[in-house]
Amino acid sequence: MKLTRKLILAKAKASDLQSVRKLNCWGCSLTDISIFCQVPNIEVLTLSVNSVASLSPLTGCLSLSELYLRRNMIPSLSELCHLRPLTRLRVLWLAENPCCGNDPSKYRLTVLRCLPRLQKLDNQVVTEGEIALALMEGEEVSTPPGSVQNQLSNNGLPEAETENDALNYNMEETNKIREELGMKPLSRDKFSSPSSPSIIERPTMRKVAFVSSAIFKPHCVESDLNLENLNALSFQTHTLDAVLLLLKDLDEEELHIVHTATQNRLQTYTLDSGDVQSFPAQKTADIQH
Description:
6-stranded mixed sheet, HIND, mainly alpha, 6 strands
């Protein structure tokens, strides 16, 4: 069954789709929710006990803070990629879908890695420790094949129509890393034109992206660095530089996530007081700045 404008207005008791803030469509046998492309201001949405298989129509619902999808037909966790732009989403109920699989722990960590801003998942409060663990051990969720996100560049235009392919490539690479960190994607105006002198004065964003990816994909680092002619660079130094560069773009909430993940990571090391004191003074000074 396709969700229609008439049904939405009747249930929400609204006069137009733009004014709809809350909607409950529990148990309506829905399979098609494409109408949500026209409901941009929805904040709380209940779609539990239906037959919804795709979340792509929700990508533009940027005000959405609570989403209830229990007992639907979501086939894969890759559908969560459509929810990444929803930076206000704090509550998600996804249980009893095919995508949940048979490993509750793996499922939960994967969802939280993809959506680290969630405060409640499947009616269970999300802890800071879970977020930190998810960022390190949760599986990376890839964009579903054939989705709109795969067909468009980060500035929302088809790649064939963009003014500068090199600039868009840098945006793609950088925003891919930012997604893995649970960060907001950068807009086009944050990038300099390839002809800008600033590009010559510092490493390209593509190189920064490759160095940053070492944090998550160390097995790929050697070949990537070779391709970029970075063999002579100190890996540890440039990884730190990349992390510090990304920190400048984080907001308070995102910095808190990074802080928690860092604390969790430090706990995996068994350093005695002598090891701590042996850290290079220069690196300490760099971090403080």
